[in-house]
Amino acid sequence: MNLSFEEWESLHEGQFFDKIKNFLSRSVGGAIGKLDDLLSSYRRSENDYIKDWDEGSIEKDKLEIELAQSKSDPAEIKKLERMMKRNRDVHSTAQKARADRSEAIDKKARSITKGNERLSEYWEVEVSRVNAEISERLHKKAKAFNDESEASRLYDVYKKSLFTSKEKEEQFKSKFGSSFMDSGAIQTGREIDLEVGEGTDGSQELYLNLPIKDFANKVKTLSPKERKALTSRLVKERNERYVAMDIEQDALIKQLDSKKIKGKELEDEKNKIKEAKQKYLEEIRDLRGKITIARRND
What we know:
Blueprint: H1 11-28, H2 31-69, H3 74-113, H4 117-142, H5 148-182, H6 190-196, H7 204-209, H8 212-218, H9 224-259, H10 263-296
């Protein structure tokens, strides 16, 4: 249910990899800058593909509707079918161009990271994060069109990309995390406790679960930097709830449509969907209130 890329852009994850980048910048000089330039190129390439995919999907949707509404005119039908084939051909070309660009960028990156395991795995982590972000955007766009099979396929791609991103980040942290802490790249004490949220009095988890009145009193004891960190976490949590609510609502509505029920049974199922949404909205309202309080104290 909580399959949001934003979940893995949470505050402590982002800061951990920012510190890694700073450390690598000092230790390997211009290599990290070159990788970042390649990563920017990769992101632009993927964004260009999303734009092409979106335009092609809009045209495909339009052509399919026109074909369904055509009045048995052989010439018109043939014309539309020819245009649909051209649409498929353009899509295939765009996919190949996307794959070729990705391969070329990765090849350049491999030549930079050759012989440096830490740098190589840093590149893999960053690319996997872009892939998760891009696949999420494609899935969201696909839901607006009539092709349910394509939306389902892209959702599977999204889930796989997100899992890969999580896995690579955890592997990197497990393999290299301690060395960054030894280098002083990561803070210690109450500040890191707040960021990571280990369940102590200073952790973010405690603040997230406090009743609103207790939260208002306790947040006053934080330093400006800690309040800023906590506010960022609260915003991430709120956004995650919105995404999770959207995914769950879509799934429940789809299940309801497939049941083909009527009368009281139908009303009961609709009420369950409303209750599920209400649960998320209550959590979102609580987080919004805490965000306002935390910002007010900045």
